[in-house]
Amino acid sequence: MTFAIHGLAVSRGIAIGRAVLVTSGRLEVSHYFIEPAQVEAEIARVRDGRDAVIEEIQRLQNSIAQMHPKEAPHELDALIDAHLLLLQDEDLRNGVKRWITDRFYNAEWALTAQLEVMARQFDDMEDEYLRERKADLEQITEKVLRAMRGMSASVVPSWTHTARKAGGQELPLNEFVDVPLILIGHDLSPTDLLHFKNSVFDGFATDVGGKNSHTAIVARSLDIPAVVGLRLCSQLVRQDDWVVIDGDAGVVMVDPSPSIIADYGFKQRKGELERSRLARLLRTPAVTLDGQKIELLANIEGPQDAAHAVEAGAAGVGLFRSEFLFMGRLGKLPDEEEQYRAYRTAIDGAQGLPVTIRTVDVGADKPLDANWRDEAHLNPALGLRAIRWSLADPAMFLTQLRAILRAAAHGPTSLLIPMLVHASEIRRTLALIDHARAQLNNLGIPHGEVRIGAMIEIPAAALTVPLFLQYFDFLSIGTNDLTQYTLAIDRSDESVAHLYDPLHPAVLRLIATTITQCNEAGKPVSVCGEMAGDPAMTRLLLGMGLRIFSMHPGHILPVKFEILRCDARKLQPWAQQLVAEVDPQARDMGTP
């Protein structure tokens, strides 16, 4: 009987095949007390298990280094680094040791007890991205438990097409050697996915995971159809069931009828043709039918991302989220030299194209250390974060500014300041930039010129754009936060997320006004939020007068395709009318 399971769409595309279930849930763990004389031996068992996992991950890193970038994307390398950091985390190591020494728990019990303690800390975090790091902790804990039992750390069988056809593996579907296979599991780690990439699977689905989980990030980078957050999927699907993974809709169809398989087969072929067609636009200039040149830039998280963004057709980097250099380091901030090398890597990777580096955007709701908790503020999302956090720690901020200025000597670079509101903040920020430049001059250290811009992501900033234009070379509209703060909606809060609406008239008017005022002043303005990468929004933003878009590199070609079909001049009156609507969604967004 056909039935559907709904989850989160995290990686686009359609995959149709037979289900292969993997046991990736937590292992059964024995709980017993040990004798005092056994303490050191139990601690050693955990240490040996951990070291075995570290060695396996390091072997994977070496394998990745030998691979072509398309086979092992840079995101995977970064996420494996994150797992190594967790394995070496002092809280994890010391916590396990205390459970064994003070409570006389056996090694497995101590490990899972400390996992529970740290998992609760992750659950309390307000930032969605950091909250989802709990899954990484669970994954590495399970790997250590498996290693302590002498089992492989990976939950994914490493079957290859050759091995399957040779019958050399214990594949339960030998009679279906030519049938695509779909992996169904409770959870999969990034390193599991590396095995997955080299195996026979065409798609995967998991019970747990969010849109920002490491598994989801790697799935997108590998371009594998995937759905996560399916809750009981691994229990409802049986070994060898036919399943369809709809990575566009976030649905898994189980035991589909022949007609449903035919429908999805058609969608699959259509999607493949669409990707092939878009790939032909890679080197096509983004120009509208009336000759307007549009700049399509990339949002990146890591320094190595810049080179990949250029390969994906980006005209430069519109947003380098530097906070990812600072996060998950157990409180040890990167020094000036490390930051300089990272920023220079991005600038070198851009091959002469412009790179915009946003200063660190962390704070109360984005703690640097996963174990850090803000219990002093009632509403940390509105508290000490982004530029407010930087201004509160001038020494840290100056270190970052010096590193960026030094890197700017190697290519066109812009500085982008997040979450400014007050004129006093603007003046103090600019004074610190001047101070950083003076420090480098006094030390005789080479540095480059930078354009300085500000993010418009708070309604108060959008309503005072002329103030910002007095001080800055360009502005960038962060539509995610602007929508969130305008509507007072935390989009990561499931109870109110349905009210998050970037098409709300108030949001559209703030965006349109900001673009208009920048254009009238002759200052560049870009949009770097989710709206920029949504082809359904492209016509509206063009009609508002936007000429610079910054988005995930994977969205560039679909947006370019839309741009090539638009007459920006004709879109203008339509967009103005739409912005003036009380309910813009009541109108047809696609046809001016």
TrEMBL record:
Q: Which residues form the Phosphotransferase system enzyme I N-terminal domain?
A: 6-133
UniProt family annotation: Belongs to the PEP-utilizing enzyme family.
What positions does the domain PEP-utilising enzyme C-terminal occupy?
277-565
The residue stretches assigned to a coiled coil in this entry are none
Please name the catalytic residues of this protein.
H214 (tele-phosphohistidine intermediate), C528 (proton donor)
Indicate which residues the UniProt annotation says bind phosphoenolpyruvate: R321, R358, N480, D481, R491
Any GO CC annotation of this UniProt entry: cytoplasm
Superkingdom of the organism of origin: Bacteria
Listed GO biological process terms: phosphoenolpyruvate-dependent sugar phosphotransferase system
Q: What is the role of the protein in this entry? A: General (non sugar-specific) component of the phosphoenolpyruvate-dependent sugar phosphotransferase system (sugar PTS). This major carbohydrate active-transport system catalyzes the phosphorylation of incoming sugar substrates concomitantly with their translocation across the cell membrane. Enzyme I transfers the phosphoryl group from phosphoenolpyruvate (PEP) to the phosphoryl carrier protein (HPr).
Q: What is this protein called?
A: Phosphoenolpyruvate-protein phosphotransferase
Residues bound to Mg(2+): E457, D481
Q: What cofactors are annotated for this protein?
A: Mg(2+)
Domain annotation PEP-utilising enzyme mobile: ranges: 181-250
Top-tier EC class: transferase
Q: Which GO terms describe its molecular function?
A: kinase activity; metal ion binding; phosphoenolpyruvate-protein phosphotransferase activity
Keyword annotations for this protein?
A: Cytoplasm, Kinase, Magnesium, Metal-binding, Phosphotransferase system, Sugar transport, Transferase, Transport
EC annotation? 2.7.3.9
Where in the cell does this protein reside? Cytoplasm
Reaction(s) catalyzed by this protein? L-histidyl-[protein] + phosphoenolpyruvate = N(pros)-phospho-L-histidyl-[protein] + pyruvate
Please tell me the species this chain comes from.
Candidatus Symbiobacter mobilis CR
